[in-house]
Amino acid sequence: MYVIQDINNRFIKKTVDNKITFTYSESLADEFPSEREANDFIRKMFSKKARKKYRAVKSENDLSVDLIPLKPNTSEESTANLQLSIDSFDETIHVRLDPEIEKYSQKLQEYDGMILDIRHWLRDENTKLNVCQGYQVVKKLQDIERARAACKKELQRVSALRNNVRKACQESVSFEYEDYKNRQIDDVRTFIFAD
Hints:
The protein is built from five helices and four strands.
């Protein structure tokens, strides 16, 4: 695969409405199957003078070679390779997402503690508030509740991602095709040989 790079080491990426944008991340750049197609894109999209600023380069993220097996794997090799991939993937998920989950969990506990502290302070018989102070208390509680809600949403999002990825990994180990269910012909043998 090839990508298009400009003289400032930025890569070309087209938006949904076919406008050209730039990114410094090669993994986000538009890819072309061949150098010729990338050069054709440059020729079509830019004036002759501007074309000098762009060049087609081989993508460092080109995984197409890895997708073609060099030799057929045996069932045991496939299972072992799959298990290694799953273990590696699970470790990556653990390293990347578990700290995020821990961070959001601790922040959620902090917000809960702050809310309880304010409630207990309000309940104290020595706490006397005028209207302005009452508003300030309610406003502070509102800010904390909103921050807590945003934190809880992120915690649930990251937890759902981790759990769904782990579930998919577990299901891939024991994956089996379901038995075929006939759609139109209930008994194919009878249908074919009935005459």
